[in-house]
Design goal:
Radius of gyration: 14 Å
Strand content: 35-45%
Largest sheet: 5 strands, antiparallel
Strand order of the largest sheet: 1-4-5-6-7
Structural class: alpha+beta
Helix content: 10-25%
Shape: globular
Number of strands: 7
Number of helices: 3
Length: 103
């Protein structure tokens, strides 16, 4: 079941809300996901991600990877799993420019 949520957000220096939508990643997002994970400076001691591995995940479980989009670009991702009893959330990634506080 594919759903999209829309979250109003404020962009720095812009008083208008700039919507962030959250939905499941698609096969067309693979390159952008790899670029996001590279930019998010994840742990370099783990095995490198590959496009084939991400495609395999998305084919096996199309709703396992959520992406946040702003202006049509991916600005965050989260991989989620469900084992029938518990939900597991991991691989939260956002670019540094979106992770800073705006107080």
């Amino acid at each position: 079941m594919r759903e999209t949520w829309v979250v109003p957000a404020m962009t720095e220096g812009d008083p208008r809300p700039d919507e962030i939508s959250i939905d499941s990643a698609s096969l067309s997002d693979v390159a952008d996901l790899l670029a996001l994970w590279e930019a998010a400076a994840e742990n370099e001691s783990r095995p490198a991600d590959t496009a084939d591995a991400v495609r395999t995940l998305l084919i096996r479980d199309p709703d396992a990877c959520l992406v946040a989009r702003q202006g049509g670009r991916i600005v965050g991702s989260l991989i989620a799993g469900w084992d029938g009893w518990r939900a597991h959330l991991y691989r939260l990634a956002v670019p540094a420019r979106h992770a800073t506080s705006r107080n």
